[in-house]
Every structure is written in C-alpha cells, then in structure tokens.
Amino acid sequence: MDTMAERFERLMPHVQVYGPPDGHPRPAVLVFHGCGGIAGNMAMYAQVAAVQGVRVFIVDSYTPRGWSRKFGGNFVCKGFKLRGFERSGDVLAMLWGLSRRYEVDPKRLMLAGWSHGAWAIMDLMTQELARPGEARLADPDPKPLDGVRGLFLAYPYINFLARSVTRPWHHKPPVFTVLTLKDHLASYRQSLQLIKALRAQGVSVETMTLDSTHAFDEEGIDKTRIMRYDEAGLQSTLDAFGAFTKQVLL
C-alpha cells in the first residue's frame, strides 16, 4: 500500500500542468478525469482557469498504473477496477504533494472532477482519514484538505458503490455541481436526493442543470448510443467553471 509521498511520486510525472510560467505561489485547481481517461475537454477547462492566473494540474490516474484509455473504458467504467474509494487516494496524495510545492498556494486549492473523478473526490469527503488504509493509503492525513476552498463536480457518479449515498461527509467544502437530465448512470431524481442530503449535513451545494446526457462536454462522445455531445452545454459549463474558480480561489 502506498504512502501519500509514494503515490504522489507515481502520479506527478504524468500530470499535465497549465498556468502562468513563473515561480510565484498561486492558487491551484486539481482536475480528475472520468473513467474514459483524459479527453480533450480537460484542456479547455484548464485554460479557463489558467487565464485567471490559477495553476491547473490535470491528474492522469491511468498511465502511472500502466493502463490505457481503452483499458479504463473496459474495466474502470464497468466497476471492475479503481472504484471511487480506491482512487480517492490519488486525490489526497496530489493535495499532499502539491501543497508542498513553492509555486502553489496551499491555502487556495480547488478539486474538480468529471464523472468517476467526481466520485473519487466525493468518496474522499466521506473518510475521516485517521487510520491506515483509508483512501487506500498507508498514512492518510486530513490536513491536505485544509486548503481546499471548493469542489467542482461535473455529472458526478452517485449510484451503486458511491459512498456519499450511504455515508456522511467529514469534510465539507462548498460544492458546485453540474447535473444532466438525461444522465443514464444516475437519474436526475437520485442526484437531487443526494444534494438534499448533503445540504442537510451542512454542505453548501450550488447546482446547474442541463438538458444533456452524461459526458455531454466531450466532443466525439456521440459514437455511443446513450451519450451526446452538447456544444452549448459545454460552453455553459466552461463559464460556470471559470466563475466558480474565481469565486473560491481569487
């Protein structure tokens, strides 16, 4: 089982970095892709934050494990590998490592996740991080979460095996979530029920609802029968991402 330092050392060489080319400590957004791997839309979101003077780190959870996007689609998307609880260690380890870098302001951090990435972030929130083995790490520690000012969650997976459905959050940063009316992985009604439960726990949750499918913001997703690319929806989500980043980090 990895320590936080070991997991960070495995992940960091494969992270895509955006932002001002200087060494000043700046606020940062950590981006976690969906189960299909890093798609082209991730760079679009990164650029929105980068022009605001924010550093963005797109975390690849597959390459360090020797997995391809095809492998992820066949095994992670189907729940056979790297479920949200397991991947939550990637989120915590990246927070731990980046908080120690001179070019990152550890008090102004934001987590952003799409689908499976949002699942991993949300599962992290359900853990006290006080015992070895939590987040599948040997030395979990909640301190790296102290600087997290917000969570941006796009069409989060909140169905079978998602811990937020049955467990309360121990860590409660403000949340902005993008929901879709035609999400085949979790009904809109399910999403609203979970949001209601989170609000009852004291989590501040703001929502934006689109008449779109899961993964609507990924060009080329139309090759599937149940997901459709929505250019207008993508633009709305880019705008919301930029506004939320500014709200919580600047």
Your description of this structure?
The radius of gyration is 17 Å and the shape is globular. It contains 7 helices and 7 strands, in the order H-E-E-H-E-H-H-E-H-E-E-H-E-H. The mean pLDDT is 96. The chain has one domain (4-249): Rossmann fold (3-Layer(aba) Sandwich), CATH 3.40.50.1820. The protein is 33% helix and 20% strand. The protein has 250 residues and is α/β, with parallel strands linked by helices. It has a 7-stranded mixed sheet with strand order 1-3-2-4-5-6-7, with helices on both faces. Helix 5 (116-125) links the parallel strand 4 and strand 5.
SSE diagram, text form:
Elements: H1 4-11, E1 16-18, E2 26-32, H2 41-50, E3 55-59, H3 69-76, H4 84-98, E4 104-114, H5 116-125, E5 148-154, E6 175-182, H6 188-200, E7 205-213, H7 231-249
Helix pairs in contact: 1-4, 2-7, 4-5
